[in-house]
Amino acid sequence: MKSIAKEKFRFELTYIYVILCLLAGLFVIWAFTGIWPMSHNDYNSFSLQAKSWLEGRLDLGQNYEHLELAVFNGKYYVSFPPFISYVMLLFVPFFGVNTPDNLISLVIFMLSGIYSVKIYKIIRSNTKNAVFFSVFLLLGCNTLFCSVNGWVWFIAQNFAFTLSLMAIYYAIKGRLGLSLSLLACAVGCRPFQIVYTPLLFMLYITEWQKQNSKLLKNKHSFISRAGIFIKQKFTCFIFPAIIGLSYMILNYARFGNIFEFGHNYLPEFTSTATGQFNSVYIADNLKSLFKLPALAENSKLAFPTFNGMSIWMISPIFITFVVYFIYSLTKKNQDKTINILLPILLVIHTFLIVSHKTMGGWHFGNRYMNDLLPFVYLGIMKYMPDKESYVKWNYPLCCFGICLNIVGAVATYNNWI
């Protein structure tokens, strides 16, 4: 009994350690940039949109030149998927458009730390290296840059990142309806997260088959098993469908297209013949995934701050994923479905991203590729060997990632580079 209580106490402390580590890293950036959790956010598109909705209007009623707004039929609309505005409906009645976006972003980032620990524990059945891998994922990767504030571009990625981690956890936990609902919310922040729907099903079905082994014993055909699954879990699809339907209704009401969130009507895309997505962008954008900083005349390294840089450098956890994936291929008892499906979905997601006209515009790192990281983290947890020596070689990668991302974030937000 004492050992159980001791383990539970240690697990609860793990959450505290992770949160303290994340706050320590963020504090350094806040201190050098002046972007504090209670600082005003000028890039508050989602709050402006929520206020307009509460006033009975779908457009913003005017142009805000410092924001990325879609122009359609002479009206100005927020050009981003709407889920964050759903959240802001809770805050706008109390704060107006001066919602505490930076503080909200901080809370969501802390939540990602908690769920990264939960995923570690449920897959690895312990918390031995949970703090390390959570810190590696959240401070040692480019995730950090988008978590410093609540700017419209970054808060959406921050939410999508955390919601994706939560969706992964609850799929493994056996709560399919909640998992799919959370992924639907993530899609309302970053639409390409929908790519991982099959993965959540596979994570859940593995556990479901174990729980229903007696019922499925004489049901060998896929159709019969699928019929049992749908009959049992039909209600799990209702709430995710409602969330998705809300996006479609809103899109149609604004732009006459259930799949149009508004980005196609940004001036930068309407003024080019190739539009927002096109295969002509793929070659150059793929290069940006491996773009290294150049050596400047003053012997300093010139880091790119527009459209991305090398993902293995800015988020070295990608290196860990590749190494562990290759290692897993040598083992007989690995989950073959995850081994095959996860890399395929990551590749599909990557090609969808690089078909976009830009790779994130102004920022430090390669922020669009951060959307893959919750699922990269899942792969690491699945593929990682048990030996401690296979963990320790990640220490220098993590230290490098933390240093580069903290200094890079400070330098970029201060316009030093």
Structure description:
There is one protein chain. By secondary structure, the protein is an all-alpha fold. The protein is 59% helix and 3% strand. It is built from 20 helices and 4 strands. A hairpin with a 2-residue loop joins β1 and β2. α1 (2-33) runs parallel beside α6 and α8 runs parallel beside α12 (238-255). The chain is globular and about 60 Å long. It starts with a helix and ends with a helix. 40% of the residues are buried.
Please summarize what this structure is.
This protein has 417 residues and is mostly helical. It has helices at residues 2-33, 45-54, 83-88, 92-95, 101-124, 130-138, 152-173, 176-187, 197-211, 213-216, 222-233, 238-255, 267-270, 282-288, 311-314, 317-328, 336-354, 373-383, 389-392, 395-413, and strands at 69-72, 75-78, 294-295, 301-302.
**What fraction of residues sit in β-strands?**
under 5%
| Strand order in the sheet with the most strands | 1-2
Distance between the termini: 56 Å
Average pLDDT over all residues: 92
Uncertain stretches: none
The shape is globular
Total count of strands? 4
Task: Looking at this protein, list some descriptive labels.
417 residues; mainly alpha; two-stranded antiparallel ribbon; two-stranded antiparallel sheet; 20 helices; 4 strands; 59% helix
